[in-house]
Amino acid sequence: MGEPTLPQPALLVVGLLAGSRELVFEAEQLLVSDFGEVGVRSDIIRFDFSDYYEQEMGRDVVRRWLGFQRTVEPGRLAEVKLACNSMERTLATAGPGPCRGGRRRVNIDPGLLSLHNLVLASTKEFAHRVYLGHGIHAEVTLIYLSGRFVPQEWTYSDYRTEECLAFMQRCRGLLTRRSPKA
User: Fold this and answer.
1) CB-based burial of residue 182 (10 Å sphere; 0-12 exposed, 13-18 middle, 19+ buried)?
2) Which end of the chain has fewer CB atoms at under 10 Å, N or C?
3) Alpha carbons 83 and 134: distance in angstroms, whole number
């Protein structure tokens, strides 16, 4: 019979989408105030993988990923996602929109990177997502196999890019340096 074990702490990774570079920096400041210092940043790239966010954020949506210095207990992913949703509301504009009294200007998607995978949090239910509680689901977006991160069938296009995969590899390096089981 297997015995329950506690997971190793994971690195908090956040994907930011915003209508401008300035909003990326503003969101990062809020995230730092809650989750501590950033250890790894991606370059800011143009988000031209979908027009899904265009109505909320405009045509010039940009993407950046952040990896934080502090590790997180994996059981806290739903709590982290709820905190990020609150930050999205703080950064929303006044007026009609899906963001409780305003138009969302920044999308903040947290995930947990372990030595084995990247798990993203989502408010959307789907066949490949597992319910965590409090309206939050988890999705294994990337797995670490044969020395590299591998996208899954459902992995979003921007998470399949070389920029993202290289960023996640750098985050894994940060986690490896602090993990006793690396």
Assistant:
1) exposed
2) N
3) 12
Let me know: does 78 contact 134? Beta carbons within 8 Å: yes
Map 70-137 to HEC letters.
EEECHHHHHHHHHHHHHHHHHHCEECCCCCCCEECCEEEEEEEECCCEEEEEECCCCCCCEEEECCEE
Neighbours of 168 (CB within 10 A): 26
The whole model's pTM is what? 0.91
Distance of CA 165 to the CA centre of its chain: 13
Residue 67: CATH number of its domain: 3.30.70
Residue 3 domain flag: no
| Residue 5, domain member (yes or no) | no
Residue 167 near residue 175 (C-beta atoms within 8 A) = no
Residues β-bridged to residue 119: 112, 140
Q: Is 52 left (phi over 0), alpha (psi -120 to 50) or beta?
A: alpha
In a domain, 182, yes or no: no
- Residue that the structure tokens 């908090």 belong to: 12
